[in-house]
Design brief:
This protein starts with a helix and ends in a 13-residue tail after the last helix. It is globular and about 80 Å long. The protein has 472 residues and is an all-alpha fold. It is 43% helix and 1% strand. The longest helix is centred in the middle third of the chain and has 29 residues, at 259-287. The protein contains 14 helices and two strands; from the N terminus they run H-H-H-H-H-H-H-H-H-H-H-H-E-E-H-H. Strands 1-2 form a two-stranded antiparallel sheet.
Length: 472
Amino acid sequence: MDQILYWNAVALESDRMAHTEIKPVERGVRGPVGSSRALAITHLAMHDAYFSIIGAAHGTWLTNPPVAANGASFDAAIAVAAHTTLTALYPAQTARLDKALREAGLHGPGTGRGGAHGQAVGAAVLKVRRGDPGLDDHDYVPDVGAPNHRPDPVNSKQGHYAPHYGARARCFAVTSRYTLDPPPKGNDPRYLAALREVRGKGIAPEPVVGLPSGVAGRTADETLIGVYWAYDGAKQLGTPPRLYNRIVREIAGARGNDVEQNARLFALVNAALADAGILCWDDKYRHNLWRPILGIREYDPSMGPDASPGHGLDPDCDPFWQPYGAPRSNEIAFNFTPPFPAYPSGHATFGAAALQIVRRFYGVHADGPDNLTDGMGFVSEELNGSTSDNYGVVRSRHSRKFPGGLWQMMEENGRSRVFLGVHWSFDAFAADSTGGMDLSQNVGGVRLGRDVANDLWTNGLKQAAGAGPRLA
């Protein structure tokens, strides 16, 4: 048994359950940044439990890892490190996690010594991250003047998710606090182009017949793309970091990874996801840009809290516009706009960070298409033949291929949020003359996630290298 893959599956199930059976004690691991933090802690503990026994030129993440007893089993060390971190992070799931440990197939010489070492490593990793800020919005006072973020009017009591986390969290391993240029807004033609695009491509199905001339609607394939990549904390599905880990599992299996390769790869992927979450959320609340549901409804100066008297609406304003929305999969409820600012896109940042690390791991160093998905099909649990939409209708199963490899996934994942009407196109990336990604511009989540991944690949996984918080 590959203990890395086994416990990765256990961790992904923990994320799924934390978003399905809602327990107050697990609020700190919910949502995208909570998930990414938990997965990073778990995988860094497994990484260090393994490499502190077998040794490697790249060393461990911990600056001063516990020392293993002679003859310690690395399988037992990996398993108990994972169990130690997961039970601390997901205490409501302790019984299930205990069962997973019993069924991990641990036996033979050195099991006890390996388990003791794994427990010590897990405890050490948890101690390092013990001071991380919470995800609540206590003491957060938002600036609600246009074009700043406000809660979704369809879900007006949603609050603000993790407004303090990004600015106050220390990075796991990335050596610089990468930041993006401000997004276009106001009279910037890029902003108006993005508004017109999402007004048509992201509109709710019911009012699509009312789109003005020249505003293109969404195709069936674009709707499929939006839903395929969603994972907006839905019941039975969890969050985007869970989706990207599932993709990495497929790639690792197709490439025939051994335990050593998986220990390193999954630690890199999940550290990149965690640091992407920190830096993305820092930029989100620094720029504080509203989502399309408000930007389109209040594009005319006569609309919104600071409205000035007017007569006749700007044709690019629709006071009653609603998006398709982030899918409320597996429950009967309104779709929604996520409870945090738009720019940059979390999906775009997380996806680029995870998938770019995989590209670098397998020797792809240049921007552009790759062959890492050749001959493969990928099924999203949003479209697996059993997940239902917010009307209770089961969606058909869909298997998707990506001829452009993980690079194509990065672009499609970022663009998908426009098709749900919850993001502007520049939240994902600046566009070139053909509409493709232009990562030469310091704009959007794909650029941010790519920079995080390249930093980790260049500088390795080192606790001491992690950039400090921006705010105390």
